[in-house]
């Protein structure tokens, strides 16, 4: 039997007769015994930076950008620890703004803010969502040498001290997420998000999972954070059970680099060949909507070498209760997928005309679906799955039957990746 995450629990299944299976899982690294103590040490001994308490004085304004509900960053631990440092330095409550870096996703609910920060923090401090489509809420940061328009939330930019939380894990565009991205994308304007998620960026060979050097997306995020004057981050690396294995704080670029080194040791694992089928586990909260859950397939597709053969199948168990997702970006993704007659023509149109933020997921998925198939298992919104040119299946048995039909034979080689968003399989043997 194999087990993958599903919703807030798990889904167990056996492979049909004649199919062979292998598991790709992130390495076993000891979790931190005392996470609050580790956070305190990180704040007390920051990398290439003064401690927070020495960076502010009474009367200063501070903005802390934190991740939205789709990210599993333990902000309920990180943010209170930051706030305690600021309070000890004499920063008044009314001079602190907690900014949820939603990017182009939907605004966070009150309940989600409580989950992310804790009731005591929400009751005491100003907590707001970023507004990427409101020009008055943004500051223009100019353009990069390659023409990327940069912008950032006005409250963040105008604060005397700008801090960001985050989680460092494999990311399809940035190579690794976290670091400066919570601010530079999560609190950016629509034009910047559109450009950095556009076809020219996604088609670039440097825009790959696990790659930071020579990655134009990573370079844009770095430049945006510099111009926005992000001075301090605290980020974690977590294992596939969402247990922190490392926490570091300090100057953004040096701290992120050290965290990526720790993340590589955890997430990058060898596999020896491509497979016919990959079962890509997601779990809550990413499997709440199709926009996020479909990342499991695209992550494995955009590994340095795609983990399935051309014509192969990705199986993604996900309830997708929110359908495609409720945000502007999620609805744009669905609209583009609905309009498509086939993936080749969709790619041609999107390359020619571009697309607004959110619709990049349609471009990415079209690249995946042009070469492979995606089956969503257990979806509560199967019509939305079909509209997005993916295949709904009631259970894993049905999914494997469909996979056998698509590949054209019953004896399939199956790779099970229980945590597909937190595992980067690297094909280490030459393909034949």
Write the layout of secondary structure elements.
Layout: E1 2-6, E2 9-13, E3 20-23, H1 35-44, E4 62-67, H2 75-88, E5 96-101, H3 110-117, H4 119-124, E6 126-129, E7 138-143, E8 149-153, H5 154-158, E9 161-167, E10 170-171, E11 175-176, H6 181-184, H7 190-196, H8 199-203, H9 216-228, E12 232-238, E13 244-250, H10 252-267, E14 268-271, E15 275-280, H11 290-293, H12 295-301, E16 308-317, H13 328-339, H14 343-353, H15 360-371, E17 373-377, H16 382-387, E18 391-393, H17 396-407, E19 413-417, E20 424-427
Parallel strand pairs: 3-19, 4-5, 4-9, 5-6, 9-12, 14-20, 15-16, 15-19, 16-17, 17-18
Antiparallel strand pairs: 1-2, 7-8, 10-11, 12-13
Helix pairs in contact: 1-2, 13-15, 14-15
